[in-house]
TrEMBL record:
PANTHER family: PHOSPHATE TRANSPORT SYSTEM PERMEASE PROTEIN PSTA (PTHR42922). One of its GO terms (cellular component) is plasma membrane. This is Phosphate transport system permease protein PstA. Belongs to the binding-protein-dependent transport system permease family. CysTW subfamily. The gene is pstA. It is a multi-pass membrane protein. Keywords: Cell membrane, Membrane, Phosphate transport, Transmembrane, Transmembrane helix, Transport. Residues 87-289 form the ABC transmembrane type-1 domain.
């Protein structure tokens, strides 16, 4: 009987081990398959990005020269020239938008995260989400009615205001989420040593959330720099140097829109070069934000 019992136990153990090996091999096969699927999805996701970057670089790189950054666009049908006025105009409008959107967006997020409670915060966050989904052309029409009509003409100020409306939701949402990520224990420790709520927010919470805040600001600036419809309604365009903040102002995105549809080869080349400059500006903004974050943290 003991021999039979030991043989049964051995057989049961052997079968159990075989089942575990089968299940282990199946799980390993499933993990490998899912890893391959995830990698393929990642490649499919990144393929359009690299394809766009490659095509824009190939089309616009040959037009990069000193004239591109120092001269005005040529008249239709003529070659040469550059896009210096559009680069300067883009910096002006995006700079105005940043001066408006960044302080208001960060302060609004600080209020939501640190001082607001209950239904007010929920409704403000809901309104921010709705605003982030508003088409950019609506922001352009809004700024047109508010600034262009009342100021009597197109201007960089109106363009900056329209871009600020588009930047605000991104800055508010990212800053709000960044402040909520900061551990609550840090706030309690600051209050415990005698700091007020305002001192805690300004000297403890905000510095800890600066990396995420800068990331949100970078995303907002990148979106604003590439917008076209709001600037057509507000800043319009100009083939000359910007004459002031209250005058029609050229921009890279509007220049690309205008030159890409004309039948002249020189203007099309400038449109590709302007597209490449826009990509470089976004990349440079991201690099500067990472550098500033690293210097602040360490």
């Amino acid at each position: 009987m003991s021999n039979i019992s030991s043989e049964g136990q051995t057989s049961f153990a052997s079968n159990t081990g075989s089942l575990k090996k089968v299940k282990g091999s199946q799980q390993s096969l499933l993990n490998s398959a899912m890893t391959i699927v995830a990698g393929a999805c990642l490649a499919i996701t990144l393929l359009p990005l690299f394809a766009v970057l490659y095509y824009v670089t190939v089309q616009g790189f040959n037009r990069l020269n000193l004239d591109l950054f120092t001269k005005l666009p040529p008249p239709p049908g003529l070659s040469g020239g550059g896009i210096a006025n559009a680069i300067l105009g883009t910096l002006m409008t995006v700079g105005i938008a940043s001066l408006i959107a960044v302080p208001f967006g960060v302060l609004a997020a600080v209020y939501l995260s640190e001082f607001s409670k209950g239904s007010i915060a929920r409704w403000v966050r809901f309104a921010t989400n709705v605003l982030s989904g508003v088409p950019s052309i609506i922001a352009g029409v809004f700024a047109y009615g508010l600034f262009v009509v009342n100021m009597g003409g197109f201007s960089a100020i109106a363009g900056g205001a329209a871009l600020a409306v588009l930047m605000l939701p991104t800055i508010v949402r990212t800053t709000d989420e960044a402040l909520q990520i900061v551990p609550q224990d840090i706030r309690w420790a600051s209050v415990g040593v005698g700091a007020s709520n305002y001192q805690t927010v300004l000297q403890v919470v905000l510095p800890a959330a600066i990396p995420a805040i800068l990331t949100g600001v970078t995303l907002a600036i990148a979106r604003a720099a590439g917008e076209t419809a709001p600037l057509i309604f507000t800043a319009l365009n100009s083939p000359f140097w910007p004459a002031g903040f209250d005058k029609p102002t050229p921009s890279l995105s509007v220049l690309v829109y205008n030159f890409a549809t004309v039948p002249f080869k020189a203007q099309k080349e400038l449109a590709w070069a302007a597209s490449l400059i826009l990509v470089f500006m976004v990349l440079l903004t991201s690099i500067l934000s990472r550098w500033a974050t690293r210097q602040k943290v360490y």
